[in-house]
Design goal:
Layout (H helix, E strand, L loop, with lengths): L13 H7 L2 H4 L3 H17 L5 H19 L13 H13 L12 H37 L4 E6 L2 E7 H26 L1 E2 L15 H7 L4 E2 L3 H6 L2 H28 L6 E2 L18 H24 L14 H23 L2 E2 L1 H10 L4 H10 L4 H17 L9 H7 L7 H4 L2 H7 L8 H14 L4
Parallel strand pairs: 3-4
Antiparallel strand pairs: 1-2, 5-6
Helix pairs in contact: 3-4, 3-6, 3-8, 4-5, 6-7, 6-12, 6-19, 7-10, 7-19, 10-11, 10-12, 11-12, 14-15
The chain binds arginine.
């Protein structure tokens, strides 16, 4: 029988039962539901609502259940319970009989589900933080190994100015650092306990909610029961953090796909994360990265979905809120999976140093240097920009790089250009000049690496 059978004369329609159940996805909250139930039983005992002895029996039965399901969580799916709360309660009653029916005193599934979900999110945030930090470490390692790999930096996917592979890696370290800070922020706001809020207006039993909250590792109990059972801000915030971080991973994927393309040829991806074509024997496709790029879409979809579910939803609990879970569970798994795959990609990538350098030399990416050179000789930047642009046009027509133009050719465009132009426009000089904070110069890159290593405790 359902938990609420008393008021009903007829059984639910089979079709409705199937439509209404959440067990097929909320079974993954089994551990959290048991943890919160044990904490609740202790609160009931402390407030003399059940005896200490009864509490011990309930707790050991719940712990037994926990051990049973830990390795066989999927077994839960064979039951036809309405949701994970009913499943835990039913199994408790199966173990200890009538006493099991006392556990739900003063509690509602409305405060239960959001407590379980918060506990689950908290665990997942800790796993995500570990994975993001591991990915950061791999970017730092790659930055250290590739400080001398010069490659073109792009704007509009056009070669713009030279950078190094290290510098590119460090850009992602920064993005991931913001992802970490966002996750920690979600955790800070999420970590309050809704348990003891009852259905919507608090519990009629005299319990100490603060003590209950800290027994589950929450910072405090929530302030308003009506809000507590209605609040899914933490789901929105977590999905929004997931969406931003997945957006970063999709940009990483796109960069790598391009670097690996026949056109760029800057890197070679490992066999470990690529696949072949069933028809074209020469192909080695960057599937892992294409999948990350695409999976970003489903995470963004889940964010939009929860926002739309919650929009205009009246207080307090509505069954609509059951729809918060599948998108969240899927997105967090997707995010964790993508982080692990990105780590694998980075660990095994081969950088083609010569080919990177050649592309940097070929793309007129030192044109800004000519302009800056002229500015130092007193020309206004706008005029210098124009002269440099004309020189690029000239070099294109001679099928040469800027470094290969004759001095006499340079001087047709400005008599201020002297022999020292050549050492001013080498790739190395382009890099070294950019030595103010955040620039690509070796000293700055080294600084960024040291700072990142200190932050992440890598020595
Ligand atoms: N399965 C429900 C959910 O996920 C649990 C809460 C049910 N509460 C209720 N009043 N029907 O939201």
């Amino acid at each position: 029988m359902a938990l609420w059978g008393g008021r009903f004369i007829n059984e639910s329609h089979e079709l409705f039962k199937k439509f209404n159940t959440s067990l097929s996805f909320d079974y993954i909250l089994a551990e959290e539901d048991i943890t919160a139930s044990i904490a609740w039983s202790k609160t009931l005992a402390k407030s003399n609502i059940i005896t200490k002895k009864e509490q011990i029996i309930i707790e050991s039965a719940l712990l037994e259940l926990l051990i049973e399901i830990r390795d066989n969580t999927q077994d839960i799916l064979t039951s036809n319970c309405e949701d994970i709360h009913s499943w835990v309660e039913e199994n408790l009653i199966n173990k200890i009989g009538e006493l099991g029916k006392k556990l739900h005193t003063g509690r509602s599934r409305n405060d239960q589900i959001t407590t379980d979900l918060k506990l689950w999110c908290r665990n997942q945030i800790n796993i995500l933080l570990k994975n993001i930090i591991e990915l950061q470490k791999n970017f730092i390692l790659s930055a250290e190994c590739n400080h001398d790999v010069i490659m073109p930096g792009y704007t509009h996917l056009q070669r713009a100015q030279p950078i190094t592979f290290s510098y590119w890696c460090l850009a992602y370290v920064e993005m991931l650092r913001r992802d970490v800070s966002r996750l920690k922020d979600v955790l800070k706001r999420l970590n309050t306990s809704p348990l003891g809020s009852g259905a919507l207006s608090g519990t009629a039993w005299k319990i100490n909610r603060e003590e209950l909250a800290s027994s589950m590792g929450f910072d405090s109990a929530t302030n308003n029961a009506l809000d507590s059972v209605s609040d899914r801000d933490y789901v929105v915030e977590l999905l929004s953090s997931a969406s931003i971080s997945m957006m970063h991973l999709s940009r990483f994927s796109e960069d790598i796909i391009f670097f690996n393309s026949g056109e760029a040829n800057f890197i070679e991806l490992s066999d470990l994360i690529t696949s072949g074509s069933s028809l074209m024997p020469q192909k080695k496709n960057p599937d892992a990265l294409e999948l990350i790029r695409a999976k970003c879409g489903r995470v963004h979809g889940s964010l939009i979905s929860i926002l739309v579910i919650l929009k205009s939803l009246p207080l307090s609990y509505n069954k609509d809120m059951q729809e918060d879970k599948e998108g969240l569970f899927d997105s967090i798994k997707t995010w964790n999976d993508c982080l692990c795959i990105a780590i694998l990609v980075l660990k095994n990538v081969k950088i083609k140093k010569q080919s990177c350098r050649k592309a940097a030399e070929e793309g007129y990416s030192n044109a800004t240097e000519i302009a800056d050179y002229l500015v130092k000789k007193g020309v206004s930047f706008r005029e210098a920009h124009n002269i440099s642009g004309q020189l690029v046009l000239r070099a294109i027509s001679e099928k040469k790089s800027l470094n290969d133009l004759e001095l006499s050719t340079f001087q047709i465009y400005s008599h201020l250009i002297k022999d020292d132009i050549y050492k001013n426009i080498t790739l190395e000089s382009c890099l070294e000049k950019r030595s103010s904070k955040g620039g690509v110069a070796a000293a700055q890159v080294y600084n960024q690496i040291i700072k990142a290593k200190k932050r992440l405790n890598i020595f």
